[in-house]
Amino acid sequence: MLMKIRRLLLKGGTVVDPAAGRNRRVNVLVENGRVTGLARNLSARGAEVVDCRGRYIAPGFVDLHCHLREPGAEDAETVASGTRAALAGGFTRVCAMPNTDPPVDSEAMVRFLVGRGESAGLARVHPVGCCTRARQGRELAEIGGMVAAGAVAFSDDGNWVADARVMRSCLEYCKAFDKPVFAHCEMTGLDTGVAHEGPVSTRLGLAGKPDAGEAAAAARDILLAHLTGTRLHLCHVSCAATVELVRWAKGRGTAVTAEACPHHFTLTDEALAGYDTNFKVNPPLRGEADRRAVLAGLADGTIDAIATDHAPHTRGAKEVEFDNAPAGMVGLETAFSLGYEALVLSGLMRLPQFIARLTAAPAEVIGLPVPRIAVGAEAELVVLDLREKWTCDRDKLVSRSRNTPFAGRTLVGRVQGGILPGGRMWGVGAD
């Protein structure tokens, strides 16, 4: 999939680098894995030339939230297959969530994930460690050891840390290591449904899961973050009430950030009418007012980042009754296109703002250097064709799993390829 290029000239493309405030046509010269030239009329004798006229060049995307399923569910995804899918979607770095089997709740497990990512040699893997042992919410996990091994954040993703004392302790420990806590906000007792509680779930006869469960959990965690002064990140914000809570918290100076997923700002619970389990996610698809609120939150910066919540499942796991099917859909390969349509083509934001939600903002959440396309910087970038129309085909997905609800949908804008540190190239000019 990757080929190494010592000297490469990306010619005629428009560089979009939100961190540098750059959005103009410029040639990019890459030598030995570093950007060595940025100029309109730049040429380089002996360099391999990639014609990027009509295309855009951006920093590599950072996904704050994906599930690589290894260890424990390698039939659905592995670190190698998941990071290959990540590159296909433009994500050069991914945060691997810890709800695996066994969970990533120890230094050894973090080192395992880092090693698997290095062995794959594709998108870089940044492990997220568990807040509590085995994600049980009772006893803190080995936070210090996991930080030393490379964990960038901590979360019991899939479970809310219901005990406020335990959550406060986790926040305080993470503050000591300057690491954020990623909160899966779903209040215990209000988390038993399979669809958004409302007219649609009633009509379809599906048990409802109210948005109050997400918002109430988010409110408690925001208040604890303010109390402890710890950085809190809210995962997969799906409803208007949570957006308003984040807006309020930021207004009072709480160190809170948030992410939204493409399925929550492009789909509503009306999509469940056919009982297709590929539309079953957690938190569930909400109503139209919630969808619009999430879009507005992204547009005004209340919601900092776009994350995929890439959640692969095997065909057999999904082909059961709606109530019994696992929640989740694959998302790495469609996230850019869905976001581009919903946010840029709709006029809600300009292209540099959208790219920032995929690059600078998520990098800042986990304390990575902000991705830049600058002379002297490592070349970690993607090439985008904003005019390409393509149809999502399950059989052509790079992910090991095929559980996408977007199969057959024509999308606009596509990642053509890119460059990783070390001068390794995929896609454009590499196949």
The averaged pLDDT comes out at: 97
Q: What is the CATH architecture descriptor of the largest domain?
A: Alpha-Beta Barrel
Unreliable spans are none
Portion in helices: 25-40%
Give the overall silhouette: globular
CATH topology name of the largest domain, in short, is TIM Barrel
Strand percent estimate: 15-25%
Record the SSE blueprint.
Blueprint (H helix, E strand, L loop, with lengths): L2 E2 L2 E5 L2 E4 L4 E4 L1 E5 L2 E6 L8 E4 L4 E4 L1 E6 L12 H10 L2 E6 L10 H14 L3 E6 L13 H7 L3 E2 L9 H13 L4 E3 L11 E2 L2 H6 L3 E2 L1 H18 L3 E3 L5 H12 L4 E5 L1 H5 L21 H13 L4 E2 L8 H4 L16 H11 L5 H8 L1 H6 L15 E11 L18 E11 L3 E4 L4
Parallel strand pairs: 2-7, 3-8, 9-10, 10-11, 11-12, 13-16, 14-15, 16-17, 17-18
Antiparallel strand pairs: 1-21, 2-5, 3-4, 5-6, 8-19, 19-20, 20-21
Helix pairs in contact: 2-3, 4-6, 6-7, 7-9
Tell me about this structure.
With 431 residues, the protein is of the alpha/beta class. It folds into 2 domains: 3-57 and 375-427, Urease, subunit C, domain 1 (Roll); 61-365, TIM Barrel. It is 29% helix and 23% strand. It has helices at residues 79-88, 107-120, 143-149, 164-176, 199-204, 211-228, 240-251, 262-266, 288-300, 315-318, 335-345, 351-358, 360-365, and strands at 3-4, 7-11, 14-17, 22-25, 27-31, 34-39, 48-51, 56-59, 61-66, 91-96, 124-129, 153-154, 181-183, 195-196, 208-209, 232-234, 256-260, 305-306, 381-391, 410-420, 424-427. The strands form 5 sheets. The chain has a 7-stranded mixed beta sheet with strand order 1-21-20-19-8-3-4, with helices on one face. It has a 4-stranded mixed beta sheet with strand order 6-5-2-7, with no helix packed on it. Strands 9-10-11-12 form a 4-stranded parallel beta sheet. Strand 3 and strand 4 (22-25) form a beta hairpin. Helix 4 crosses helix 6 (211-228) and helix 6 (211-228) packs parallel to helix 7. It starts with a strand and ends with a strand.
